[in-house]
Fold this protein.
Amino acid sequence: MDKFRMIFQFLQSNQESFMNGICGIMALASAQMYSAFDFNCPCLPRYNLVYGLGILLVPPFILFLLGFVLNNNISMLAEEWRRPQGQRGKDRAVLRYMFCSMAQRAMIAPVVWVSVTLLDGKCITCAFCTSVPVEILGNTSHPSLSQGEMKQVLARIPCKEIYDGQELIANEVAIRYLRCISQALGWCFVLLMTTLAFLVRALRPCFTQAAFLKSRYWSHYIDIERKLFDETCAEHARSFAKVCIQQFFEGMSTDLAAARCHPPRKAPADAGEATEKLLGITDQGTMNMALKSWHRCKPPLHLHPPALPSGNGWAGEGQPPVHPPLPRRETAAYYSRV
Amino acid sequence: MDRFRMIFQYFQSNSESVMNGICGLLALASVKMYTCFDFSCPCLPWYNMAYGLGIMFVPPIALFLCGLILNRQSLVMLEEWRRPQGHRKKDLAVIRYMCSSIMQRAMVAPVIWIVVTLLDGKCLICAFSSSVDPKKFVGFANASLEQVQQLLAKVPCKEDELMRNNTSRKAVSRYLRCWSQALGWSILLLFIAAAFLARWLRPCFNQATLLQARHWSNYIDIEQKIFEETCCEHSRLFAHKCILHFFESMWQEIKLQSFSLPREEEGVEREEDLLRGIRHQDQVNKLLKMWYYEKPPL
């Protein structure tokens, strides 16, 4: 029990750091994904805007959903939300706390993507190159073009190799301008997010500390209860399986002995532990029968009442049955109820 | 008892080192962010100043807020400040001590950003290239005012076609960089001197109050950690009892349904204890269904 307690404490104290670790890894993965991504502006009037804004906004949404998927607690939240009330009331504050803490962690990777994208500048340059103020930045001496033609020319700004509007507006000037705007937006976004995070953390102790402590305790409780229940069920399943298999071997050995019309072999009083573990099966033929039986006809999921610790080794003799006992012959038919 | 003492000492020694570690990491992250950041001055008259000063001052604010957020002690301090008085008096000196230690740690990364920016020089060149006196530089002395503004604004952009081979551009650039680096080193010297004096002169003033404040701020921190630890332990025991009780009640129900007398025996195998009377597939299924549909009350 001590070992389980130490493991539980480790898991509990480390769950926060484990979730923070996953969060950090996703943020790094998001930055790495951006640098590995080969950005290719289409350099066509309407496609630029769609492509640029798509790269800016769609991956963060995917990363946000991924943040929820990778969080183990999402199934716990769903379970607690959907369970029937029964004898235990449901506390909405606990559900809200669990959801908020998951959402906060899932927001980090998308915010990193958007910040890195804006600070790099390629997306905004691609999306808004047709909106550059030509009157301010351009060469005033150039003859005016129609709107459509101007947009065609400006759309090629991100693609330096095919840009042909150098007389209209210098490529470097336009790119510098757009990148400056993009980086300013990026830093403002970073500042906004850190301010929001700071306010969320700082204002909580000022207003709802008692409710927060309560929600945090009960959300940990739900988590631990679920783990302990799984642990207890696993223990139970192990014992169930052990007793089921023991009874199977005992049943095999007594059946075969009865079929050969031998009296049941009694374990001698001074038998060693190894002999006991043989469970009455001591020759190759019997063992092969046992293995074949196990494959063809697994025993039902129905354990017989436990044997009294009496002198003889034959179970089922002289004890009050706990459950209506099935005759041995029927269980020897080995029908599977799984 | 020994185990608790070891845990206490671990928490005590590690709180400070964890905070110092986070501080150091944030400082390194600040330098790394600056080197990764692709500084590109717009080289336009009003935009230069906004961009240059923005890059110099906005990230430090964000880093400062990050430093406050990542520091666990800031939450502890806020909770202590806002808690109702109750049976325990509030000591403002402790809160002030905690506040000042949090602020000092949070200031490290922003100061490093500003110093690195100034020592590198790009920000100041970008921000103030339009503000230099054109008469000091040969190439700009004879142009008209508007032209001079435009030309000076393009000084930070080496690759611009107007500026590519302009020697006066290099002169302006060197001049501004010199100022920038002088400012950077002065600020660094100022901060280090201030830190040195603060540490050195502290024992001369109020040492006893300081020791008390430090002790009680550590105490509040440890108390909160142990409270959380105890809550976890308690919820684990609560859950354990709840589940055992649930299995027991299932066992009782099964016994009642089988109309048999409960057997109290000596020497029943351990496996029987673990099975808790649940020996059929149906019983297991019923138990799992009850667990979902009707969790036991707390």
Notes: Chain B touches chain A through 70 residues (CB under 8 Å). Confidence is low (pLDDT under 50) at residues 261-269 of chain B. The first helix of chain B runs from residue 2 to 36. Residues 208-254 of chain B form one domain.
